[in-house]
């Protein structure tokens, strides 16, 4: 999935059971264990899995509670061993369904972008990106930073280089990396800074956190707006004075940028 689900599930489980993280193991997803899992869309997958984990852990703690009686400050191993000896079922299962009381919430974020545009070739570089996102109380900050970076770069590709082209027959022409260009390593912003909103919380989220899988994707439009401003400045060198909004087809590929710049041949004459 790429949402860091296994990491977050392990952290949620360790937190809920009150045990060290190294005592938690996460196995791969299997339809035998979860035949009717929730849909994986809208950044909700990690939240749904984490919420189901919380419910399963609460049920397990109820079953383990009797084993704590009569033992002063018992260890996790002692509690599990005594419960096993008492014939307690040590396996729990839970799922997140539309019937659960998960409330919707908003994810807020702001982005500032600096770009450099070569008006002769139409190529550009994203020099710096600053993102501030409201992640609530992040369950796993390292995972969430990676999610925000990945989502932004995905949006970067959608806005600047990924383009579907079809033949008159309807056949897809851009069906390989020779013709369809996803963002590469050199398209990533040179200076990429991610910050979380401080002292934030989310009472509607799992452990007061917020989803981070896709919200940053929409912030990538900032690159388009920055390129648009650079285009307007570049057009001034060719004698254009734009008073109305300049329409540019997306994505802001080299081809579309060159068309928008509308070079005048006279500008290339030697003085």
Structure, explained:
There is one protein chain. By secondary structure, the protein is α+β, with helices and mostly antiparallel strands. The protein folds into 2 domains: 5-86, Aldehyde oxidase/xanthine dehydrogenase, molybdopterin binding domain (Aldehyde Oxidoreductase, domain 4); 108-268, 2-Layer Sandwich (Aldehyde Oxidoreductase, domain 4). 32% of the residues lie in helices and 9% in strands. A 3-stranded mixed sheet has the order 1-2-3. The longest helix has 20 residues, at 45-64. The protein starts with a helix and ends in a 10-residue tail after the last helix. GO terms for molecular function: iron ion binding; oxidoreductase activity.
Average pLDDT, rounded to a whole number, is: 90
Q: Please give the share of residues in helix.
A: 25-40%
Order of helices and strands: HHHEEHEHH
- Going across the biggest sheet, name each strand in turn: 1-2-3
* CATH architecture level-2 label of the largest domain: 2-Layer Sandwich
Number of strands: 3
CATH topology of the largest domain: Aldehyde Oxidoreductase, domain 4
Basic shape: elongated
- Proportion of strand residues: 5-15%
Distance between the termini: 57 Å
Radius of gyration: 26 Å
CATH class of the largest domain: Alpha Beta
Main beta sheet, described? 3 strands, mixed
Instruction: Say which CATH homologous superfamily of the largest domain is assigned.
Output: Aldehyde oxidase/xanthine dehydrogenase, molybdopterin binding domain
Structural class: alpha+beta
By DSSP (H or I, 4+ residues per run), the number of helices equals 6
Low-confidence stretches: none
């Amino acid at each position: 999935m790429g949402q860091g689900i296994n990491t977050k599930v392990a952290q949620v489980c360790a937190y809920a059971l009150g045990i060290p993280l190294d005592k938690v193991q996460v196995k791969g997803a299997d339809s035998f264990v979860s035949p009717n899992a929730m849909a994986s869309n809208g950044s909700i997958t990690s939240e749904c899995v984490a919420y189901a984990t919380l419910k399963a852990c609460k049920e397990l703690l109820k079953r383990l509670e009797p084993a704590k009686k009569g033992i002063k400050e018992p260890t996790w191993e002692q509690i599990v061993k005594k419960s096993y000896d008492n014939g307690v079922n040590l396996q729990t299962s839970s799922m997140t369904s539309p019937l659960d009381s998960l409330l919707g919430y908003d994810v807020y974020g702001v982005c500032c972008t600096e770009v450099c545009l070569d008006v002769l070739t139409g190529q550009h570089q994203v020099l710096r990106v600053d993102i501030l996102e409201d992640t609530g109380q992040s369950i796993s900050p390292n995972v969430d930073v990676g999610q925000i970076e990945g989502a932004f770069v995905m949006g970067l590709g959608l806005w600047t280089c990924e383009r579907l082209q079809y033949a008159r027959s309807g056949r897809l022409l851009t069906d390989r990396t020779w013709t369809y260009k996803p963002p590469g390593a050199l398209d990533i912003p040179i200076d990429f800074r991610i910050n979380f909103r401080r002292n934030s919380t989310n009472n509607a989220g799992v452990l007061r956190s917020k989803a981070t899988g896709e919200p940053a994707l929409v912030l990538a439009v900032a690159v388009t707006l920055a390129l648009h401003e650079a285009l307007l400045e570049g057009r001034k060198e060719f004698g254009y004075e734009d008073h109305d909004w300049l329409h540019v087809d997306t994505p802001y590929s080299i081809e579309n940028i060159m068309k928008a710049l509308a070079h005048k041949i006279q500008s290339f004459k030697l003085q």
